[in-house]
Amino acid sequence: MKKILVANRGEIALRIMRSCREMGIKTVAVFSEADRKAPFVKYADEAVFIGTAPSSQSYLNGDKIIEVCKMVKADGIHPGYGFLSENSVFCSRVNKAGIIFIGPTPKSMQIMGDKLSAKAAAKKFNIPLVPGSEGSITDISEGKRISKKIGFPVLIKASAGGGGKGMRIVFEEKEFEQQMKSAISEAKSSFGNGDVFIEKYVSSPRHIEVQILADSYGNVVHLFERECSVQRRHQKVIEEAPSSVLTREIREQIGKSAVEVAKSCNYLNAGTVEFILDENKNFFFLEMNTRLQVEHPVTELITGVDLVKEQIRIAMGEKISFKQDELKIQGHAVEVRVYAEDPLNNFLPDIGKLETYRSPKGIGVRVDDGFEEGMDIPIYYDPMISKLITHGKDRDEAINRMIRAIDDYKISGVETTLGFCKFVLRHPAFTSGNFDTHFVQKFFNPQSLTSEDKDAEEIAALVSSWVYENENRKVLPINKIETSPSKWKKNR
Ligand code: MV4
Is 291 annotated in the active site? Predict the structure, then answer.
């Protein structure tokens, strides 16, 4: 491949192009009206305007993107994450146009895109699954019978589901009918597919996912796990690798299971196999994400593998550049997602101009971002400003380095989730490793951010009056005087 079109925007477009450049491959950006001045557009060797700001008119317009690809004579398309990345129809069209889709085959995308067919494929390979119905349930009394057999509480899930849509917990039989009807209707309206199934509800799970790579020679490797248990309303907040709960034995088993899941659908390229872990550290396969994920950098930092380069090599028909037993976990990595959202106002997007934007630097710090100071964050897309990733020799070092990096991050003009992430990173439940997917719900309220601020302000006031009284108005050395605006309210 000599030229790759990146069918995405923001930080991930930039991140993909950087790897292309290192491989001597030319890059093409496609951009919407809202992204004219974005760094990924400037970074690309060529950039083509594809439409107005709404995604439906630009980044989701597959036919237009294929047309551009032919026009610029690109050999391949990298879809990034979101947008068209898991669209099997788009993937087929790309292939039919004689262009290489840098990702899986349409067939494996289809199998894994539907949770029921994904579970059916995995079952044949004896992968552990949460006890539940085998296929979709349409009959209320059959649903009740299965639920009683596996025991309440149960979870009704949409086969086409995502982001918690069409998911309902049922604690007792008398709620079942109503919850099943509401799950089906939500699944129909969200996905145009009302298929639902039943699983035993795992009440305090941890979310563990395994990165895999598969090449066209039948080699499948895993690159260990990421733990993404800290999430808010199905939006991941903090991701880390490795997980702090897995033993060497479980890590090996879950890695092997992930490889088997990939083999069960003849997977090709990079993918992520998602599991939940119960209180007794039993793991169960939930679903597979057939794309490069947002949180892939933590895996890159602990393995030293550039996942995008491997994706491109695999798409070119090359073998994975290493063997399973050559991989070793090197230290620990943590990622926080920095959103332009206001944690004090129910995480409402706080879009606007990045008046100040200075990212942290130094040893073990990686910032994957797509904005520059002075730019507006568009309202049309996800309000993620950047991903901040730190790497250290162990979990403590990675966490302390992250807290330092958060303190070094200077953003003004919009509210961000930096202070919220810092709250999580310092919480004893997080630092001890003893947490589950209910962390935010259990421990976070907006006061946890403001009260800390009040304490700091009060201490500052006391210290300054003490200095004034006791030092008898001694003049402070000039280099100790803070001339910039007060920092007390930053990164709360
Ligand atoms: C579950 C579960 C408990 N028991 N399945 C949520 C999204 C989808 N990927 C799977 N999800 C869950 N499935 C059973 N049988 C709890 C969740 C869940 C969850 C899982 C991982 C990370 C965050 C979560 C938040 C709420 C619920």
Answer: yes
pTM exceeds 0.90: yes
**What's domain 131-200's superfamily in CATH?**
ATP-grasp fold, A domain (3.30.1490.20)
CATH of the domain spanning 3-102: 3.40.50.20
Contact in structure between 414 and 341 (CB atoms under 8 Å): no
Each domain of the chain, given as residue ranges in start order, spans: 3-102, 131-200, 206-447
Catalytic option among 15, 226, 291, 492 = 291
Closest residue by CA, ligand 1 atom 24: 437
Lowest mean pLDDT across 7-16, 334-343, 405-414, 467-476: 467-476
Residues with CB under 6 A from ligand 1: 130, 155, 164, 199-202, 205, 207, 231, 234, 276, 286-287, 437
Mean of the pLDDT values across residues 351-369? 97
Q: How far apart are the first and last CA of the chain?
A: 46
Q: Over 60: is that where the pLDDT of 483 sits? A: no
Query: What pLDDT is attached to residue 123?
Result: 97
Burial (CB count within 10 angstroms: exposed 0-12, middle 13-18, buried 19+), residue 468? exposed
Tell me: the pLDDT tens digits for 378-411? 999 999 999 999 999 999 999 999 999 999 999 9
Q: Is 214 left (phi over 0), alpha (psi -120 to 50) or beta?
A: beta
CA of 101 to the centre of ligand 1 (A): 30
The second-level CATH assignment, the architecture, of 206-447 is 2-Layer Sandwich (3.30)
Contact (CB, 8 A) for 291 and 101:
no
